[in-house]
Amino acid sequence: MSVKILAIDTATENCSVALLVGDTVYSRSEVAPRDHTKKVLPMVDELLNEAGITLAELDALAFGRGPGSFTGVRIGIGIAQGLAFGADLPMIGISTLAAMAQAQFRLTGETHVAAAIDARMGEVYWARYQRLENGTWHTFDSERVIAPEALVAECQADSLSWSSVGTGWSAYPELAKLPLTLTESAVLYPDAQDMVVLAKYELAQGNTVAVEASSPVYLRDNVAWKKLPGRE
């Protein structure tokens, strides 16, 4: 039986939806920072119609769990939860940083990827990944939010060559001072077509959660509270 997974991501400026049916991936993607809520559901309908299946026939619903913009992550998980609840589907949260690593492999075959998303406030969302022979990704540096100068100060040199993906590199040129051998990439944003590939592995491992248990990963959970008077 072929695996069927729908993936939704609105965690960054890019809005994307992808549908995996067996070995075929259907996808839609558009950079539309302020129109995620208008774009997502029509994209979902288009893909389901194109593949000739319904939500109820899916095995799971994947979503970009972050890190990314607070509003974007909330929109994505909210829409995904609504669809999954209505169709009684398990959910799979996929890292936006890992999705960009998968995108770089899809496009170039690179197996060592340094991902940096502009997190605003003088920081980046950062992680490094190494692709293993079984097709999974080893987290070389764990996901975190960090100031570029702090990252430069603590990063250790190695003998590997790293592909740089994400918006953080252009937002913070000082990342070029990292003691790493870096190669440029055209991958700026995560995309749902790469999330469904990662989600297929997670589903095979039984790594799903119920709708009510699905949650975002902000990495900077306290920022929204600190903006409110009296909150620390």
TrEMBL record:
Keyword terms: Cytoplasm, Transferase, tRNA processing
Pfam families in UniProt: TsaD (PF00814)
Keyword set includes Acetylation: no
CDD domains assigned: ASKHA_NBD_TsaB (cd24032)
Subcellular location(s) per record: Cytoplasm
Signal peptide start and end residues: none
Gene Ontology terms: cellular component: cytosol
Biological process terms in GO annotation: tRNA threonylcarbamoyladenosine modification
Chain ranges of the Gcp-like domain: 30-226
Stated name of the protein: tRNA threonylcarbamoyladenosine biosynthesis protein TsaB
Lineage: Bacteria, Pseudomonadati, Pseudomonadota, Gammaproteobacteria, Vibrionales
Gene designation per UniProt: tsaB
